[in-house]
């Protein structure tokens, strides 16, 4: 049976990165800082040092638990890694408007968090 999945591609320096229909990287091993920057640009976000801190927390969380965290576990992980001031929903919403867990996971090259609409 042939697959009917529709993919789109992110192209950076003639390299093609396959994305799922919602824009998440298919192969997380292909993630690079350039991929993150390009995905952030699509979201209208310019990555700062604060964004990168969160992206690294997310990637560490994924390496440990093999899943991208939904909002509550993300807040907890950030608070444990970066302190209570940064581990607040309002801080994450400022950095990653809309749905911080989904947007940050996408930029970190991770799958869409479970339990996120």
The largest pleated sheet is described as: 2 strands, antiparallel
Total strand segments: 2
Pick out the low-confidence regions.
none
Distance separating the two termini: 29 Å
**Number of helical elements:** 5
Radius of gyration: 14 Å
Question: How much of the residues is beta strand, in percent?
Answer: 5-15%
Shape: globular
Helix/sheet category: mainly alpha
The CATH superfamily name is DsrC protein, C-terminal domain
CATH class: Mainly Alpha
CATH architecture: Orthogonal Bundle
Description:
The protein is globular and about 40 Å long. The termini are far apart. The chain has a single domain (8-107), classed as Orthogonal Bundle (Arc Repressor Mutant, subunit A), CATH 1.10.10. It has 5 helices and 2 strands, in the order ββααααα. Strands 1-2 form a two-stranded antiparallel sheet. The longest helix has 17 residues, at 49-65. β1 (8-12) and β2 (15-19) form a beta hairpin. The protein is mostly helical and 117 residues long. α2 (49-65) crosses α3. The chain has helices at residues 33-43, 49-65, 71-82, 89-95, 100-107, and strands spanning 8-12, 15-19. Belongs to the dsrC/tusE family. The active site is at residue 116. Part of a sulfur-relay system. It comes from Halomonas ventosae. It is found in: Cytoplasm.
